[in-house]
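quick one before i forget lol
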Amino acid sequence: MRQFLQRATEAGVTLVESDAARLAKMSGTHGHQGVAARVQPLGQVHSLDELLEDLEAANAALEPALRKPPLLLVLDGVTDPHNLGACLRVADGAGAHAVIAPKDHAAGINATVAKVASGAAETVPYFMVTNLARTLNELKERGIWIIGTSDQATQTLYQSDLTGAVALVLGAEGAGMRQLTAKTCDALVSIPMHGAVESLNVSVASGVCLYEALRQRTPVFATPV
């Protein structure tokens, strides 16, 4: 709390001491952890098309070596807000440009998602689309490679080239991707499992996939001696 107060003071924020009852009224919950703030919403892109066009324009102004091809996370049927929040947090950490999900059979952004995401719900664009298969086909038209995850795939994640424009598709735990979603993918890959369990939590799997993409995209500037 002392560190928070110091940073708030340095940022020029007006601090008002309040009791617990007032904080609960302001925040709408007793789980406020001692702080409530009035803030302005961050500017967000309004559509997936807008985001991709802005990214394309930004890349066009850069030298080829500095360009960042799209890295997208697609969640098919993830309905648990805790899982969604964790996926958003991982996506932010790995530098993914957006998370995409269908409007039906998927979790939306709520207080639980925002809390689990630890700020990533405000920094990572989350687009809920009417028809996921159609959206994936539209991404293909933009030159984005659609890679789905499946424990039945013969190729592993680590055998895939993730350096280009990529959308990584993960399904819900247990059911996995829907059949139409899987058919729409350009390729299916598996995450090697060497223990007794058959699958990973979807947020953990998202982290494995996104950070493998980040590893492949990160230039090696020096070799340790």
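fyi The chain has a mean pLDDT of 91.
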